[in-house]
Design a protein that fits this description.
Length: about 190
């Protein structure tokens, strides 16, 4: 009986360690802002963390203060007026991806997959369709990347007032409220 309990405890420990961990150095999230109708600029968040549980639940956390627009004053303004970073330091995204999709994928193979992404910005959560390419890099490495940009409507997260504030500060005619987002994330397990 003790041997059975020890084996059960050991298998539970291994199962919890089998969850996939996001590899920050191999993962990127970028988004595009468009001002005055024709000027597009690419921005990014420089740090991501997360995991992919054995039940298929994927969770990614994005520290808002890692915003990088290549212009420090713009970073400060976006963090203050759009993201309200003092009160909401993290953006989170989650999705459910059937574990069998990964187990059936052979090393080096890719597949297209469409799912729903639950995105939380400030205190608002929206469900967005996402088209992914899943690639099994090795038995212990999986990559998920957007096949098409995820279109985030800033107004749906009540970020439009902050965007308008940036527009006024920068004396711009317009900043688009529709923001294309792309990501390429890698998960590994030991």
């Amino acid at each position: 009986m003790r041997l059975l309990l020890a084996a059960l405890a050991l298998s539970t420990t291994f199962a919890s360690q089998a969850a996939w961990q996001l590899e920050p150095a191999q993962s990127q999230l970028r988004f595009v802002s468009v001002k005055n109708g024709t000027v597009a600029e690419v921005h990014k968040f420089s740090q991501l963390s997360g995991n992919w549980a054995d039940d298929g639940k994927v969770l990614v956390q994005i520290p808002v203060t890692t915003l990088d627009t290549l212009i420090p004053i713009r970073n400060e303004r976006m963090l203050e007026h759009v993201f309200n970073a003092k009160n909401f330091p993290t953006i989170s995204a989650s999705a459910q991806i059937e574990p069998k999709l990964l187990s059936d994928l052979t090393v080096g193979a890719s597949m297209q997959h469409q799912t729903e992404l639950s995105l939380t910005l400030l205190d608002k959560t929206q469900s967005l369709p996402v088209q992914l390419t899943l690639t099994k890099l090795s038995n212990n490495k999986i990559q998920a990347s957007t096949t098409a940009p995820v279109l985030v409507n800033s107004a749906a997260f009540q970020l439009d007032a902050g965007v308008r504030k940036l527009q006024d500060i920068a004396k711009l005619n317009d900043i688009s409220l529709l923001v294309p987002v792309t990501f390429n994330v890698e998960f590994s397990r030991k």
